[in-house]
């Protein structure tokens, strides 16, 4: 292979096309993201495959899959594109400011309840910034962040942060969600010791909130029992009288701040300050991004804005952790 000839045929735009198809697994949606026609995108990717002498994708009538060699090419393409963004940041003097597109994700037990609160402030602070929002579970979000498929993630700290920067934002307490008329309704005080482990409803394995709830209650992972796939299902299980659960504060509020009681069938009780530091059980929410991201200064500005925009009922956390 003629290396100089191959390099002259490579373009960053073609790499963007390849990464878009790899992420979306769909040529049409990738073309929409890249603001180009699908025939043009497909033609450029085929041209790149010919240049490299390999197939990047398996194409069928129903789905698009990366080939094993394609996975390695896409991983390197993400690195090349990130370094290209760093070069442009140095050239235009933006010194890491946020611009263009920001792929921001949150864990599933946080995103639907936090995004409506922070979006007006984000749009006001960076009106030209294109926000692409998504949700997922902690492990998959961190994998996508490390691979360059995401730019920043909102999740519960601490996390394994090798090569990542984590900024703590706020402490979110857990409330007890129980059926209306439950035995704990009239209790003057509420502590974790008042809970009956047999009544505790949990999310299915893979959700960090499940592990946090078990840890808060001093319980080990349980194999049996009924588990929910998401918070809304969990809330409806409580409404149906199946048991009680620990619910993050932000998830107890519906539209316009109304308490989400599922037709009056669910009540929420705060816990006394029974955990370390006198806090009730809860979690610390933080913003995490790659330490190598050329927009580090802008992402720190984003963390500072989120810290100033605390949701009602949460508590400021000022600690910083860089790894």
Automatic annotation (TrEMBL):
PROSITE patterns attached here?
A: HTH_LYSR
Coiled-coil residues are none
Q: Does the keyword Ribosomal protein apply?
A: no
Keyword list (alphabetical) reads: Activator, DNA-binding, Transcription, Transcription regulation
Q: Which GO terms describe its molecular function?
A: DNA binding; DNA-binding transcription factor activity
Gene3D superfamilies xrefs: Periplasmic binding protein-like II, Winged helix-like DNA-binding domain superfamily/Winged helix DNA-binding domain
Please give the CDD domains that the UniProt record associates with this protein: PBP2_OxyR
Q: Name one GO cellular component term.
A: protein-DNA complex
Family the UniProt entry places it in: Belongs to the LysR transcriptional regulatory family.
Please give the name of this protein: LysR family transcriptional regulator
Q: Which organism is it from?
A: Azospirillum palustre
Lineage, broadest ranks: Bacteria, Pseudomonadati, Pseudomonadota, Alphaproteobacteria, Rhodospirillales
